[in-house]
Amino acid sequence: MSAEDTNLPAAPSAVAELMHEMRNELTIAKATVEAFVDGKLPPTQQRLEAVLQALIELEAMIGDLPSGAPSVESRMRPSEINVCELLDREYQSLEAIARAKGVAISVRRCLRPAQACTHFYADPVRIGEIVKNLLLNAVQVTPSGGHIDIDCSRRADQLEIRIHDSGPGVRPDESKKIFEAGFRGSAAAAGSAGSGYGLALVRRFIEAHGGTVTLSQGGDHGAVFIVRLPGSVQALSPACGACESSFA
After folding, report:
1. From CA 154, how far away is CA 157, in angstroms rounded?
2. In a domain, 61, yes or no
3. Residues 104-134: pLDDT tens digits?
């Protein structure tokens, strides 16, 4: 491929994917700032950092606009990050949206972050988008009064994130299509408008990191999305203990 080819217009679906991600960042930042203005949430440093992270990720996506869209494989920008801090900001960034719908979010995280997590090698924008898309999807399908449980821990040599919502779950005939671009399951369709690109991007971003994402049913109700990320091509440290925190 020549140098000129890299500046060709992106396919409509690729542009739609990029716009989907940019809209997510704007929605989260706007909802959080509105919650500050309305007095529904105090503007703590952690929440302000969550808004700032959303804007930083949006800025990175705007940088992708000249080329048309995020080509996952070619536009990865991996670096060493503290993935625990990054994920905590992502959880906080969804707080205003979850509260507005009457959905509680609880987080189970490591008591002491593993060295492999404080020195995690990955693209911070893509990791943020993975969690953001999964949580927005969970909030969308969870009814008012419901809850979302997040378990973030080390499992063997991987970072594992489990997101369990109390929504209607995914029908068996839809489970194999849920990660296809443009597909919207019946649970999402019954909630609110959406593009159908979120979960497809989740899988692409995770696979670009050498990880996996799976879907299972959450017992009597809900769905559980399980993300596993190596964070490095090298072996990582063993699992650590966990503690609880929550916000509603």
Report:
1. 7
2. yes
3. 999 998 888 888 899 999 999 889 999 999 9
Residue 1 lies inside a defined structural domain of this protein: no
14 vs 145: CA distance, rounded Å: 36
Tens of pLDDT, residues 63-105: 766 655 445 445 678 899 999 999 999 999 999 999 999 999 9
Question: Rounded CA gap, 169 and 110, in Å?
Answer: 27
Q: How much is the pTM?
A: 0.78
Q: Please write down the HEC assignment for all residues of the chain.
A: CCCHHHHCCCCHHHHHHHHHHHHHHHHHHHHHHHHHHCCCCCCCHHHHHHHHHHHHHHHHHHHHHHHCCCCCCCCCCCEEECHHHHHHHHHHHCHHHHHHHCCEEEEEEECCCCHHHHCEEECHHHHHHHHHHHHHHHHHHCCCCCEEEEEEEEECCEEEEEEEECCCCCCCCCCCCCCCCCCCCHHHHCCCCCCCCHHHHHHHHHHHCCCEEEEEECCCCCEEEEEEECCCCCCCCCCCCEEEEEEC
- For residue 180, the domain's CATH number is 3.30.565.10
Could you list the residue range(s) of the whole structural domain that residue 26 is in?
7-247
